[in-house]
Amino acid sequence: MMIKFTEKNKTVAILALTLLAIGLGCVSQTNLTPTKSTTFPTKTNIPKTIKEPGGAGTPIAADMAVSNKSRQTSPQAPDADLKILAGDNNAFALDLYHAFSGKTPQNLVFSPYSISQALAMTYAGANGKTASQMAQVLHFTLPSQRLHPAFNALDLSLQNLSTAANPDQFQLKIANSLWGQTGYPYLSPFLDLLAENYGTGMYLTDYSKASESSRQTINQWVSQQTENKINDLLAQGVITPNTRLTLVNAIYFYAHWDTLFNPNYTHQDYFTRLDGSKTSASFMSLGKALTMPYIHGADYQAVELPYKGDQVVMTLIVPDSGHFSNVQKSISVLWLNDCWAQMQDKKVNVVLPKFKFETSLGLNEVLAGMGMSDAINNAAADFSGMDGNRDLYIGAVVHKALIAVDEDGTQAAAASAPEMQGTTAVDPSIKTDDINLIIDRPFFFVIHDTQNHSILFMGQGVDPH
């Protein structure tokens, strides 16, 4: 899915996410002087130094437009609202999955949580039909006055998982930022809402005179937030002189397995693709049966592999041979909830291929096809909650995600692992009545927390290479 741009007299805004970039733009090249109906926020120096991309590390001048509000660290959001929001986000995640997977199955990884949060920040400035379409597509069932505090509470709860953890074994970082055209009249209520619920102010940049420099600066911020794993989120041409706003959400995830795979049992074997062909892959094994949630359904098996702390897990769903398409079509938020609910603790040895996937997607056509057409239509979009006028529309949505899995754990970005070989995948002491789950065929994966089942990353592997 490619993003097409036209050089018309419109203003484009990009919503970027380490795993997503969205653009909001102006219908006409308006006067950038604030009007009486708008309030331009106070400028302050940015809290962190941004180094000049490609330079020798010299700090560059930048301002940050902020509201007088600070993030609500104890948001008034009941646990019930967090459950509702997590379920709504997961419903959107499965809609996206089916839109992404398409007719030709490919390796896939994406972060539905990151996409939902980035679009929620955009939704905060939507009105009228644009807002109702976005709410329907995103499955937002909570009213706005409860939705954004719930996002804040859910976000803080997820980030708090890292607070008590050993950073060498578990990290989950989520960051938001806004990048606005200097001098453009943004409304204070919009900025206040994002400051209170998403913890971000606005970096000011000059797209009209320095669009390429702006693109590089945003990309550098993304790189900093993802431990230099995503270095070119916004490709050349995405940011133009007509860009007016870029909203960014970045997620970085790194975690060790609660029980590491035993490198002594890593070995080469064959992985069977959907067309029946085979390819050599490096398989890793726990080497012993461990007690973990497991289910053997009518045409699939599924197991939960916990990360350090047991608060985030990877659910692996392995269709029986010849049933990949049937399971793929069946997967929905209700199907997943039922799968999780029916899992029982079993003694299981997991044999899993190492894999490293990267996915880049353009979301405009997907979101329009799902029913969010007005938001990307310059003649119909209503983001008047951002600037007091119906001048902005989404010009581009770009999503990029990476995942690497090896014996130690998972990194939601590129990572390298040594090639190791062993003589066998199973410890001879494993009992015959234990379950030996060998994932040597296409599979699905879902990384989620155990409290609310919020899906952080998900995808599928049809070829481990």
* Portion in helices: 25-40%
Instruction: Name the average pLDDT.
Output: 80
Q: Which structural class is indicated by helix and strand composition?
A: alpha+beta
**Between the first and last Cα atoms, what is the distance in angstroms?**
22 Å
Radius of gyration: 23 Å
Report the uncertain regions: 1-23, 27-64, 413-430
**Count of individual beta strands:** 20
CATH fold name of the largest domain:
Antithrombin, Chain I, domain 2
CATH superfamily of the largest domain: Antithrombin, subunit I, domain 2
Q: Biggest sheet, open or closed, and with what strands and sense? A: 10 strands, mixed
CATH architecture of the largest domain: 2-Layer Sandwich
Give your account of this protein's structure.
This protein is α+β, with helices and mostly antiparallel strands and 465 residues long. The protein folds into 2 domains: 12-255 and 358-402, Antithrombin, subunit I, domain 2 (Antithrombin, Chain I, domain 2, 2-Layer Sandwich); 257-356 and 403-461, Roll (Alpha-1-antitrypsin, domain 1). It has 10 helices and 20 strands. Strands 1, 2, 3, 4, 6, 7, 8, 15, 16 and 17 form a 10-stranded mixed beta sheet that branches. Strand 19 (443-449) and strand 20 (455-461) form a beta hairpin. The longest helix has 23 residues, at 79-101. The radius of gyration is 23 Å and the shape is globular. The relative contact order is 0.21.
